[in-house]
Structures are given as C-alpha cells and as structure tokens.
Amino acid sequence: MDYYSSQISKLIEELSALPGIGAKTAQRLSFHILNMPTEQVEGLANALLDARHNVKYCKECFTLTDADLCPICKNKARDHHTIMVVETPRDLTAYEKTGKYEGVYHVLHGAISPMLGIGPNEIKLKELMERLGREDVQEVIIATNSSLEGETTAMYISKLIKPTGIKVSRIASGVPVGGDLEYIDEVTLLRALEGRTEL
Ligand code: ZN
Description:
Elements: H1 6-16, H2 23-35, H3 38-54, E1 56-57, E2 64-65, H4 71-74, E3 79-86, H5 89-98, E4 103-107, H6 125-134, E5 139-142, H7 148-161, E6 167-170, H8 186-194, E7 197-198
Parallel strand pairs: 3-4, 3-5, 5-6
Antiparallel strand pairs: 1-2, 6-7
The chain binds zinc ion (ZN).
C-alpha cells in the first residue's frame, strides 16, 4: 500500500534501511528533510557522497580517514610503541574521548565469530601482525568488546603475538559483558585501560 508518492516512499525506505531507524523515525526524518531549504538538503547529500567517496582506511591503523595516514598515526607526539587493538573506528573514538590514551590504535573492523562465519582472515588481523613485524612495538593492548566474539578474538590475537615476545595485555572487564565499548562512559573505559592485565 502506497500512501505517498513513490519518491517519498523511496526516501522513507532508504532511511529505514539505516541501523537504529525504524519505520516511524524514517517517516519523520523524510518529512523533515522535505521541509528543509534546498541548499541544506544539498549540503547533506553532498556530505554523504563526499564522505563515501573520499574516506578510506588509514594505511597504518585501518581506521577511517580521508588521508593516507590518519591524524593519530601522523602525530609524532603519540607513543607509537603502544598499540591498542579495537573492533571498530567507533571504539577508537570512545577511547580518544577520554583524552588519556597516548598510544596508537589498530582497527580490526570486526571480531572473530564462528557463528557468523567470520574467521581471522575476515578482519584486519594479518595487517596487525605485519605491522608488529615492521615496527618497534612494546605493548599490544587488546580492547575488543567483552562479548563472546570479542573474547574469542582477544584469545586468538594473544596466542598469535605471544611467540613474538611483545607484551600483550587485555583491558580489565569493568566493561559489562556483551557491552559495546562505544556506549560505555569514559571513567569506566579509563578504569578498564588502567586495570589491564598481561595475557
Ligand atoms: Zn591511523
């Protein structure tokens, strides 16, 4: 049943395909957009397209950036001997917001999940190991989520790194089980980082 013209329906459909946007919200957003000045809609559409076309992986840490190296990897003042391994760029942002972590990152873009058929080759793990072989790294802090997938990934990574002699640690489990890092407040994140244990 099509209450609206097909173009409005198309807009609602596209918006409701986004995570966290239900049919009602998609409808509300659609009407909001249709009432916005044309220039503002163009600004939004261009921002979406520019980001999609220009954003790529940092060639060092694999977070999303629009340059070859992200601002963190480029920053000489950061401690490049300490790498924190996170699942997503959102987790990186969560730790950056604490303003207390001085090292650099490595973004896996996922976690190992036998249930979903995601193996070690589906995440940026080979890239991490190559990086460890190339750079002078003293500690790898594994900050994957405390979900089953996050824990599986942490175990897998620590087993891979152990033989290299590089120190491997895991953030403390002050983080609720199954909790996504990005929703956890900064104090908890810092506590988890400070209370990390060597694996
Ligand atoms: Zn980077």
